[in-house]
Amino acid sequence: MALELYLDLISPPCRAVYIFAKKNNICFEFKPVELFKDSILGRKIVAASLMEQAILGQQHTEEFAKVNILKKVPVLKDGVFTLAESTAILLYLSRKYNTPDHWYSSDLQKRARVDEYLSWHHNSFRRIAPKTLWIKVLIPLFTGQAAPPEKLQEVIDELAASLVQFEEKFLQDKPFIMGSEISLADLMAVVELMQPVGVGCHIFADRPKLAAWRSRVEEAVGKELFQEAHEQILNIKELSSIEVEPKLKELLAPTLMKMLK
Amino acid sequence: MVVELFLDLLSQPCRALFIFAKKNNIPFEFKHVELIKGQHLSEEFGKVNVLKKVPALKDGTFTLAESIAILLYLSRKFNTPDHWYPSDLRKRARVDEYLSWQHTAIREKGCRIFFTKVLMPLAVGQPFSPDKLEEAVKEMNFTLVQFEEKFLQDKPFIVGSEISLADLVAIVELMQPVASGCDIFADRPKLAAWRSRVEEAVGKELFQEAHKQVLNAKSLGSMQLSSELKEHLKQILKP
Question: What is the ipTM of this complex?
């Protein structure tokens, strides 16, 4: 039975897993999960795995407002083994398929550096960058109103602070986070930073060092693959023209209002 | 030269490291970075960790931040017993899965309770907001359901029959609400039983030692935060 990867390429961690698997010629069955389309069109909330179904269960309509739907993917299914969390999936794939050393160096201290980045990532880029999508596209879509401009500025400022830390601590003057070659750290970082780009926040525009790093990462991954993975997020504005069911708008309103706080 | 661990046992990730190093007889120098005095914000400590957070490790000229990274580094360098980070591909993946998920789940919600009930009042000199605490507890409750249903289930430990880094990282985070006066184990027998097992596996004495400071409610409530720290907290906690 083939390896299955449940992905929605709108989600940054899904893109990391997708790019990694493709770049390393890992055979997998792409199981598309359309997070927003399904919820927007009021279709059944897609539970990406049996585990998720068990959690969401029959209360999914109530729980839906509480569950951050962005956290439902990616999921890996290898026979009966299911695995969530992109970091865990990437490490699992790198080990199972013996990917080239530079992705997750076997050198003790270099490996620690990748672990260090992957840990820091959660409370920085992963936490902040997605808010740009919510504020610029999803909240207007679901509430019919633009989010207050101060909110977007707040997020941009927060992201800017993280970018300073990223450049000072992780990237510095090296070609990649780990030095001369791309690793899982660069991959996880770049996909997250493409989220604001997709919604029109040009964070690379006035940051030449960061922009140069992004080019190198694109090159290392392969431009075609990078574009392919990012096609949806780079065309995310198309989502704005979809009609959302009023009942669904009502359901999501409390969660969305909380996000604005 | 011995490994240096920069710690303050008020901090959950610091406790995980302290317990892990001691349990595995890893020789280290305990470098106390007193959070309430704002020592982590100093320029000197910034040379060890530019992110100005504890824990941090210094091994010769090699410095390392992020408790997860440090735990993994120590487990590899000192060849700790397999059960902490199993070499079995799938078991290891389960530990990775928990260590990843917990950042924005158990860790985040536990911190929020501690900040709301203990730190914020000390920073602004006013009693805690009951509404904010209620919200923080609600979020923690939801997260605990996920923890029990997805990670613990009916197993003795998160990854089967033996303690791993996942349990260690989980338990220290869950002690923070307890230290804040929110006993999340009180009406959760399964969780309480797991906690006992983890304490036993780690060693009760060591567990107590690591948690002595944070569980001293009286001293916690009367902590004198440095003015620099107060300002810093007011900025980041956004009351």
Answer: 0.96
